[in-house]
Write a structure and sequence with these properties.
Helix content is 2%, strand content 35%. It has one helix spanning 20-27; strands at 7-10, 31-35, 42-46, 51-59, 91-92, 98-99, 103-106, 109-112, 121-122, 135-140, 147-154, 165-174, 178-187, 192-193, 197-198, 216-219, 223-225, 238-239, 251-252, 268-272, 281-287, 294-299, 303-307, 315-316, 322-323, 330-334, 349-350, 355-365. The strands form 8 sheets. Strands 10-11-12-13-28-22-21-16-19 form a 9-stranded antiparallel sheet, with no helix packed on it.
């Protein structure tokens, strides 16, 4: 069945602090667009942090504010709730998420990192991959499968991590409405932990359109990794059954959120994704019930971090919009947090000459405009 007339709808909550675009130009950053052949599906990215800053997908019912042309937050860390530190859309690493007490032991040697989350290291440190300028290696703007590839060389000792690491991130659009992100990293001369993640914030009601508490979320994971008071995994992998972390069936994000109020800022937890590790499999599905806009997330990583943006504190965005608590959600496919300090977790170590491979796909749809039959 043919689709109804399609209108572009901005889905990505992505523009951050005022003045960040000017700062990016001065620092050597730029914006790049990918657009499908029909012209109704596009993204914008920047080489500052190899970040996605806008996603426009088809929708047959309404047109919301266009979030394209914006940038991510100019600060950098992650989910710490500090203004300007939300890592909007960035590629974070060398090791995403947290490393306990900013150190680890590898092959008998202790490596000391830079703490930036209390005593812990978050997303690779204060100058993580989301804070650096990447090189544009290839850029095919349009056609059947437009793509762009960014490259960054992380030097031995950067933020305390061992060994030289060559990192590539490729964004690609494909038929009908798929956004693929491929991350590859080659360890050159020393073993090193690697865990790259994309920190995109989604609001399927549109840029700056309020909270996501009514979004329906399904996470295909029967277990999760509980954390202590400093957000470090305890080392256990336990069932979600009977807990408020159970999203095995589509559930409104805000359904059980009251359990966190007063004592915390909401969901920020890693799930152990069902299925064979390192194999592409369905990880999650999100749908905004009013519009019907949805995406499926597929990936090949052992875990996924669900973050409900409880730490967003009046982040200023495009067109005078302000992003507040629960104004978006993140689903970050990844290795388990602090895996380098938990030998029972799937290993995140990459040996010299070996290649880390992380592939994720967002597959967009809506009730009003499915793909051609």
């Amino acid at each position: 069945m043919a689709r109804a007339a399609l209108l572009p709808v901005a889905l990505l909550l992505c523009l951050a602090l005022a003045g960040s675009a000017d700062a990016r130009r001065k620092a050597g950053g730029g914006f790049y667009e990918l657009k499908n052949r029909k012209g109704d599906f596009s993204i914008k990215v920047t080489n500052q942090g190899a970040a996605i800053v806008s996603a426009i997908v088809p929708d047959g019912k309404e047109l919301t504010t266009d979030g394209s042309g914006g940038g991510r937050a100019s600060g950098g860390g992650g989910n710490d709730g500090k203004s300007g530190s939300a890592s909007f859309g960035a590629t974070v690493g060398r090791v995403a998420n947290r490393i306990a007490n900013a150190h680890f032991v590898l092959d008998g040697k202790t490596y000391h990192l830079i703490p930036n989350d209390g005593n812990n290291t978050l997303h690779g440190g204060p100058r993580n991959f989301g804070k650096v300028i990447w090189t544009v290696k290839e850029h095919v703007y349009d056609g059947d499968s437009p793509y762009i590839t960014f490259y960054y060389h992380s030097f031995d000792g950067e933020q305390g991590f061992p060994g030289d690491l060559d990192v590539y991130v490729t964004y690609q659009l494909s038929h009908p409405y798929d956004l693929s992100i491929r991350m590859n990293a080659t360890a050159r001369n020393k073993a090193t932990p690697v865990n790259l993640a994309n920190h995109v914030y989604w609001n399927l009601a549109g840029h700056g359109s309020g909270n996501v508490l009514k979004h329906k979320l399904q996470v295909l994971a029967s277990k999760y990794t509980p954390v202590d008071g400093s957000m470090i995994p305890t080392g256990q992998v336990v069932p979600v059954a009977g807990t408020n972390y159970d999203f095995r069936k589509p559930t409104a994000v805000g359904m059980h959120l009251e359990i966190f109020r007063g004592g915390g800022s909401g969901y920020d937890i890693n799930y152990a994704v069902n299925g064979q590790q390192n194999a592409m499999r369905k990880v999650a599905r999100v749908q905004e019930p009013k519009s019907g806009r949805a995406f499926e997330l597929w990936a090949n990583q052992p875990g996924v971090q669900f973050y409900a943006a409880g730490g967003l504190v009046s982040e200023k965005g495009k067109d005078g919009k302000v992003y507040r608590q629960y104004g978006a959600l993140c689903l970050e496919t990844q290795a388990y947090p602090d895996a380098v300090n938990h030998p029972q977790f799937p290993s995140s170590i990459v040996r010299p000459g070996h290649v880390y491979k992380h592939h994720m796909v967002f597959r967009f749809s809506s009730q009003a405009s499915y793909y051609d039959a």
